[in-house]
Fold this sequence. Notes:
Blueprint: E1 3-8, E2 11-16, E3 19-25, H1 33-42, H2 45-59, H3 70-83, H4 91-99, E4 101-105, E5 108-112, H5 131-141, H6 147-154, H7 163-172, H8 174-180, E6 200-207, E7 218-224, E8 230-235, H9 240-254, E9 259-263, H10 271-279, E10 284-288, H11 297-317, H12 326-335
Parallel strand pairs: 6-9, 9-10
Antiparallel strand pairs: 1-2, 2-3, 4-5, 6-7, 7-8
Amino acid sequence: xxxxxxxxxxxxxxxxxxxxxxxxxxxxxxxxxxxxxxxxxxxxxxxxxxxxxxxxxxxxxxxxxxxxxxxxxxxxxxxxxxxxxxxxxxxxxxxxxxxxxxxxxxxxxxxxxxxxxxxxxxxxxxxxxxxxxxxxxxxxxxxxxxxxxxxxxxxxxxxxxxxxxxxxxxxxxxxxxxxxxxxxxxxxxxxxxxxxxxxxxxxxxxxxxxxxxxxxxxxxxxxxxxxxxxxxxxxxxxxxxxxxxxxxxxxxxxxxxxxxxxxxxxxxxxxxxxxxxxxxxxxxxxxxxxxxxxxxxxxxxxxxxxxxxxxxxxxxxxxxxxxxxxxxxxxxxxxxxxxx
Length: 340
């Protein structure tokens, strides 16, 4: 059973016993990772993960790959420690030192990738039997993020966790399989060019009347088109007064955008939005066609991602109050890796 320990403010260590790996640094803990790892052990995800991964490891078995058994790990660690104490080194010892280094952390030696001069970034090597705990924890931490998000997060801390192992873990995740089974809209998105942050923003409303959270029946997604930064706010209704109030709160915090896109103007063409424009003359309402690839594509993708994160949060926390998840989902969405 894997265990997690908070070793510093905002830092979590994953591992069992003395084998602990720091994987999260200065990140908001959205989900209870202890609970998630316990669930993964109870449903047999770890066993199924290694049932698939072990044949792949055997197929790629060679001295050049980065899959390390516990025996290989200890052997390389000892070789590096010995090579660093020898004055006249052999060629194999130079090869070891080029590929590996040893670092003592808390009275325990760790095998790491050699650090560049002046760099403080540490990238650890891990054993095969630690892959699942680390990848699964990163998967949950990114809000059931996909391959690229997990890889982007882990490659900062680990040297030998590869995309192949990440893909195996993703296939074990029932939540992600349900998400991928949903039909995708094939849109060819023509990008809208932006000059700077807050030059063009977009807003959309998500209707959750079928699953109300007390007085909240909608939530609003406000997105900066350049940075993909989002702000999510729960709404009791879609009356213009409440939307205008939320927009003014955002505008007075971040400044008003030069151009504000809306979903065909259905929520904004009224006297309240007109008053917002009068208070902030630089705001220009651009009425993009609903679900139009040129104006709505980015927000539609963000909306789908956010709805998936909310569903995952509710399933993991066992909390039907989706409004309580919005601030955490917002934090995850804004800290996620974007390819472009």
